[in-house]
Amino acid sequence: MDKIFIESLGIELPRLGFGCMRFPVKDEKIDFDKAKSLISYAMEKGLNYFDTAYNYHKEESEKFLGKVLSEYPRESYYLTSKLPIWKIEKEEDAERLFNEQLERCQAEYFDFYFLHAMNSERKKIMDQFHLYDFIARKKEEGKIRYIGFSFHDNEKVLEEMVSQHKWDVVQLQINYWDWHEIDAKSLYDVLAKYKIPCFVMEPVRGGFLSSFAPQVEKHMKDYSSNSIASWALRWVASLPNVAVVLSGMSNMEQLKDNIYTMTNFKSISKEEQNVIDRVIEELKKINPIPCTGCRYCMDCSFGVDIPEVFKVYNNYKKTENKELTYRDYFIYMNQDKRADKCQKCGICISKCPQHIDIPEELEKIHEELVSI
Ligand code: SF4
Ligand code: SF4
Question: Is 289 inside a domain boundary?
Fold first, then answer.
């Protein structure tokens, strides 16, 4: 696994980080043995950066990592977690949550600790409860080595965040789709301007950029035998201010493929960029729902499996395979989880970092899927 030296921090990190929100699951819980074997393989190959958070896997991810990583010397891996800002109702909550997270992770300190999923609303909470001062203090106490935040809002809010305080790193959602179709480039430019290393989440956009309809994949497959996902990882890792690229890997095949991609790393060439541009043009025609599968909108009190519905729908748009879509939606998905169970309560909307009008999209999707 290739490493990258981050000059401002004076440390070397693996180019690929392990995102801990998409471990293999069994009966809706982390499949301990399978997930542990992924961690063991990653450690063996030098992929020793792990990015978790309080809420991942219904609050099981930190505990799982704590158990598995406690078998390794603490200095042999990098551990990142994030403060769930939305749970802070008074200043003391930060200390309580932070200590709980250290305990769950069986750790004395975090290598990186972020304010989680910052946006303009959460910035108000950060200011009101002095959360920057809190994490800066923890850094001074040696409980955190590097501080930062992950971010889902616009350029203006990002500029406010980075100009008002000193941050070691910032984590952004960047991939070739968001770069061209949303505002990832302007966010990236802000970090480059302030010379803050950029860690990247969702390089494959929750799997959206890992498979396409055969006629779209053909552009990439004719060029090389590498996986479709590898194009997305290499594209983002080729940006000069990008340090670690995270991938939430769910099985050994993905893990091996990603490690292969990030070993003897080669930046995207001009010719390859032309191939990606052609793929983007094709993808634009299908107008996908911009869901990354992060599950922040869950649980829906009425049982709708929002990310699963969006996944099935986006796969349908990508593949146009009616038979498979019918199977995935009407046979495999429990009817209590389908889009028509949405009661339009609206609670999920503000939780979605991609600002999707979830009830509206669900209604349209169900109408379209019943007619296939
Ligand atoms: S708007 Fe619909 S999908 Fe969202 S939480 Fe309410 S019922 Fe569930
Ligand atoms: S709808 Fe939004 S919050 Fe829910 S999984 Fe998709 S991107 Fe995440």
Answer: no
Summarised one tens digit per residue, pLDDT across range 249-303 is 999 999 999 999 999 999 999 999 999 999 999 999 888 899 999 999 999 999 9
Q: By alpha-carbon position, which residue is closest to atom 8 of ligand 1? A: 300
Whole-prediction pTM value? 0.89
User: Which residue's alpha carbon is at the smallest distance from atom 3 of ligand 1?
Assistant: 342
pLDDT tens-digit map of 185-198: 999 999 999 999 99
Query: pLDDT tens-digit profile of 61-116?
Result: 999 999 999 999 999 999 999 999 999 999 999 999 999 999 999 999 999 999 99
Nearest protein Cα to ligand 2, atom 8: 294
Other CB atoms within 10 Å distance of the CB of residue 6: 17
Q: Among the three residues 252, 284, 316, which one is the final residue of a domain in this structure? A: 284
User: Which residue from 7, 76, 24, 70 is spatially nearest to 47, judged by alpha carbons?
Assistant: 76
151 touches 161 (CB < 8 A): yes
Tell me which of 284, 315, 338 is where a domain ends: 284
CA atoms of 147 and 136, how far apart (whole Å) = 7
> Which is the closest atom of ligand 1 to the Cα of 346?
1
